[in-house]
């Protein structure tokens, strides 16, 4: 549904043929994504919530990360996971405002939790949300 190239674009990383395979993106995350990727994804997903970034990286940790300007691999994985779901939501809805509305509205297939909360919780949560987006895109019950 969402390619690695699309995820790299959301993250603001240069898209190269190697990124498309996924291994280059994994390597970038492991070496530490720039702190700017966090800022970029937050501006896309929650532009009106100045504190949203602290749901991805706690405030104290964020303040420490400002010195190195690099995210840890765990933090980068969390940001990339959200970027992947964001890309899928925009692909389905074809509109950023509608994608945001989907992510921040309780969904019955997620026990009325917000999709964004489920995504931030774990990789399995992100897969549940991507499954719902796939059902919406391809016309199944969602």
Automatic annotation (TrEMBL):
Residues 25-84 form the Antitoxin Xre-like helix-turn-helix domain. One of its GO terms (molecular function) is DNA binding. Residues 88-139 form the Antitoxin Xre/MbcA/ParS-like toxin-binding domain. Pfam families: Xre-like-HTH, Xre_MbcA_ParS_C. InterPro entries: Antitox_Xre, Xre-like_HTH, Xre/MbcA/ParS-like_toxin-bd. It comes from the Bacteria. NCBIfam families: TAS_TIGR02293. This is Uncharacterized protein. It comes from Tistrella mobilis (strain KA081020-065).
